[in-house]
Every structure is written in structure tokens, then in C-alpha cells.
Amino acid sequence: MPFTDTSLKLDDVPVGGSRCLEFGDLQIGLFRNADGFFAIDNTCPHRGAPLHQGVVSDGQVTCPWHQWQFQLGDGVCRNIPNIKIPTYAVEVRDGTIWIDVNNPQEKAP
Question: What is the rounded distance in angstroms from the CA atom of residue 45 to the CA atom of residue 8?
Fold first, then answer.
């Protein structure tokens, strides 16, 4: 898998933190919780809200505009389970965060 260097170090995203990363036209929300790092499409499919600005708890992010909830691990919407946003594999290499932006996981549940 061709991973892309985000140039972010572990300390740049504290536990409970998030960031919006741009790769061309692609925006990815990077989240960190006690289980590690997660990368999902940063745009809520409902009305386009930036998910990295949402509240993260219990392995999910809540959209800051209309409270749709998305699981960080698989992108499934908790409110409407047949909706899923792309997720991206994340690796930490020598303290730097890398994301596989070329291979989104988009299979419906």
C-alpha cells in the first residue's frame, strides 16, 4: 500500500484530538483516541460539515452541524447504518503519521 507522509508527529495530535488534512481535493479527518489513530473522509454526507470539528467519544465522531454519528473504525453512520463514509489506513513510522490516501475502504456494511 502506498502510504503518504502527513508530516505530523505523534505529539501533534493528542489523544482526543483531530486534524483536517488535505491531499489535493481530498479532505481527510485524522482522529486519535485511546485505541490509536483513525482516518475518515472529513465531509459529512448529509450537509458537508467538517467532521474533524465534531465531538469524539466511544469510537465515533458526531457531526458538528446535525449530530450524525460515524464510527471511526469503519465509517458506518450510527443514525442510518446503510450510509458509510470512506476510511483510510493509518500507520505510525518512526513517530510520524502516514495515511494510505490512495485506497479508501468504501464497502457498504
Answer: 26
